[in-house]
Records
---
Amino acid sequence: MLSRLAKQVHTSFPDFTGVKVIAISVAIVTGSMLGLRQLGGFEGMDLSLHDRLVRIRDRPNSDPRLVIITITEEDLRSLQKWPIPDGTLAKVLARLQSFQPRAIGLDLYRDFPIEPGHAELVEQLKQPNLITIRSIDILAGTPPPSASPPEQHGFNDIAIDPDSVARRNLLFAESKDSGNLYSFSLRLALLYLANLGIVPEASQESPGYMQLGDTIFYRLSPTSGGYRKLDAAGYQIFLEYRTAQNLAREITLTDVLSGEISPDWIKDKIVLIGSSATSLQDRLLTPYSPTLPGDGKTPGVVVHGQMVSQILDAATGVRPLVWFWPEWAEILWLFGWSLCGGLIGWQFRHPLFLSIGVAMGLGGLAGSCFALVTLSGWIPWAAPALGFTISVAVVVTYQSYEDHRRQQIVMKLLGQNTSPEIAEALWRGRDNLLKAGKLPGVKLTATLLFLDIKGFSTVSEKMPPEDLLDWLNEILAAITQEVLSREGIVNKFTGDGVMAVFGVPMSRLLKAEVELDAQHSVECALAISDRLVDINQMCRDRNLPTIQMRIGIFTGPVIVGSLGGKDRLEYGVLGDTVNTAARLEACKKERQITDCRILIAKETLVHLQDRYEVESWGPIALKGKQQLIDVYRVIGLRSSSENI
């Protein structure tokens, strides 16, 4: 029977080791995640998570090198005119210039005169530290002020991601009418850095990239960080915001016009002038928008200030630029987390431990990503997280499926022919069974019960074979029921006999457990004796001879495990204890005092705690045994008063 099990299991399941299962699962999951990632399936999730980590890491410190002049709703009501007349704007610029700023950035389009005061504004636009704005494509956008020199123009176009968030700083762009263009923020930063002796130059270490100071400005590629479908045209870097709010001192236009500012606020600073009024709609979503009041948007002039601040910090070594791993490193990162998920799924079977393992894994991944964000790094998170989770699920599902199928085979092939306990023992030892086709022997203490039907030959002479089989099965079924109900197992049927074992397949470590097995065996024997009354009544009703039974019980050490070779195996119980129990059953057959004779040895009696009334037969030489055995006949359960 066990040989059939081993053969069927080996032909039903591939001989996968844990390594093979994990390797195949991880390879499939990693490949699937890479394919989905290349299609941009994780870009939105990676961008969103990076924003969250940035908000957690937020460093609320303003930039003292910047001052922002904002045009608010109150300013518009005070001026009662938009756009601002050239004369008013010229007055603002002249006052700021008197305080000796290092650079002024005018984030307002002035492509045509707005009288009065245009001549005054032209004079201000010629100042060498004033940067004006234009669109990259002036045919579809806005040209720069004609009075401003070309080297003082900067485009103010901002790269926007598909989710409408500004996360990139476009430093250089290509224009059909003007060739290479500098951005508004880069022009302002270079003016400031020139006084520090820092000028842009081609990197010797990485040809094709710009270098400011010791920092190489690596441009974004279509697959940088979490991006996979990025339009990387021009020269772009990832925009790392200095802070969510309060980037720099903000002064309203009215305060400048009224003179309510200190010269120290402006001297040697970069001054940006732009609108913050909601009605002018020059406002953008940023990674911090979910935490900001109102519409969550940031004025465009402030976003340009963030860009200027980032360039200055990078060039002076204060704050590094955001860096990314190469493609091969990101693939290894994804593979590593998928492998980690597969290992956790294989190692932990208990739902609690599995849940803890998954939580710790995902927590470790999120913690690693956050740690790198604090170091200005950006690595993918969504694909590794999903790969980790799916690998866990695939391996756990595989194991559950295989376990279920194997258990079905074990229980089907064994549960029908032996007790559920043996089937369960074989299932617990399935690894040895499936690999070697057998279970190793285990030594333990058990109680053996042998039963034989006296008079079976006489009955068989009076019944057709098919009726005899049905009759015998009814009797054996009743016996089996009594055995199983007392935690025993029916190890085998010997024609008209039964061999039952109490105390296997689990080893009994405590004396109380051995005693309970012995008591269960005697209880079972007495219950069978009671059932024999009904069995004989059934025989009389069918005009059949009545039968008698002999039962022998012995407690002692046995070896349990697989018996046989590759062509036939069975769950065996071996040892002198087995032989002694069998000899007790066959001992002095002529002394059949009752219809069901129950004999035990002293080795069993010592475990019964005087619960049963017995009759001593004295020392008897059992067949094949050199030493005498003290034999007792069990009469029945002692009365309550006797037990007391």
---
Amino acid sequence: MSRFDFSHPPFDSLTACEQQSLEACVDIAFFADDDEIMGPGKPVDTLWVVIKGIVREMAGEEVIGVYRERDTFDARALIAGETQNRFVVHEEALLYAIPRAQLMELTGRNLRFGAYFYASVSHKLAALSERPGQRELQTLLTARVRDVRLREPVKVDGSTTLQQAAETMKTQRVKSLLVQDGTRLGIYTTTDFRDVIIHGTPYHTPLSELGQFQLMSVDIDDFLFNALLTMTRNNIRRLVVTAEGQAVGILSQVDVLSYFSNHSHLIAQRIERAQNLDELADAAGQITRLVRILSGHGVKPPQLARLVQTLNARLFERAWQMLAPTALLENSCLIVMGSEGRGEQILKTDQDNALIIRDGFPQDGIAEICDAFSGALARFGYPPCAGGIMLSNPAWRLDQSEMQARIQQWTFQPDSAALMNLAIFVDAEAVAGDASLLKTAHEVLQQAIADDAAFYARFARAIEQFDTPLGLFAQLLTREADGEAVLDLKKGGIFPIVHGTRALALEAGIHETNTLERLSALTSKGLLEQELSHDLAEALTFLIGIKLSAGLDALEEGRQPDNLIAPYRLSTLERDLLKDAFAVVKRYKSMLRHHFKLGSF
């Protein structure tokens, strides 16, 4: 049995041979209270791993780091060959000592292991999600359509009759046929036979008159995740798979579900088939369970958030359809805003939604319907918004003219509240009703702020609202809360990235709402340096991932998730990466200050 614990990062990325090599050179050392292990002026030739006890990192008399069981120190000093800080034992400690020479040899042979010590920020952050322990199965992130065993399509001519189609399906043992009618390609399925019976369609009717010729398709090299989203969004059971524009297979719901064990598509179907709010509440309760499963299997936060966004959109749409009469559905637009609109919310959080109503549509009874909708979402697990940004608040159910006037007020009288409301609205996405009502509102906003440099500067200035919790000596700055040293991930890291990118995208006329998509668009336009863009994307992904892990732990303990984390609960690697992520945030804020000339205000 190994005396060294290889179950935690970065050591879990070593091969069996590499583990043997490392174990052969590892020593165990004991230090008493107040012993100095490393310090300024002393050569650094060892990486230390805590077996038991506590070690403090000191900058002068200030404690800037605390290391406990399984923590490592100090990789940065090891590479530099020296340290400016002192590492002092607080409680007698038993440590593994890994010689520098052997560690450097391993980092040269194992790139993933080496990435933890000296790769670029974006590579280090990305490497965290690639640990072998997180890849027990191929995930939605990496699997492609071609990885699934596709059903070979059976193609018939458009002149094929219903009776011939039924016979072909029986003999070929398939549930769908591709219909070639001249240049048109369509599909006819067993489900379509239901309409034949209902409408009494003659059996000699050709499929050219009955097939669905607006096909939903997916490329064979596309991610299976995208196919899953397409099925979920359009409530369909199969997609035509294409290769170089030609149909090569049929991907069905059953194929996807047999590949993945999470049954996310089944949740979407439960939402779609729900007949009342009770059934919707049951389906909504499965979403957090799905998050836990997928997160445990290594699905990255951005992909997980987009899947949750799709499910939430279907859930909100069905609830609205159950509560609102048809006339209101056709003459209004239900929108979600903030992180929900951006597709960056994973666990259920406060409601951020609004309703835009067509000018002239009578509003009798709408208040009661909106109250019922907000109540339904609260029942589904989405608590009321503390700031009242929800349909039950009259300020967030407006007709077109009122919404346009509100936008004008936000832009021409931009106090702090107005700018906050505007920031939330910029991220809005339509989930039900007439989406053109939201599109028109966005066009009004773009016209109001066109070429207004002063506005963009005022809008971007919110990045200065919160300090980044990273000190002069790269220590994490915490505060006391409930007896723990904590920091706020959203205020300190997530918000500056999200809002800074939102400001740049708004100025550039970029219509994407998702932060990662905005970063990509800014980079492609030459408005953001590529390396910084990559670092920001990885930093945001890491911060959201840490927030998700803390949120899932809170739910497990019966607590409501929030934005606070206790750094001491993280591993050494996670704390180091957290420092790297905050360093990226600081670099970004500096760039934004220069770009928007925030020093002038």
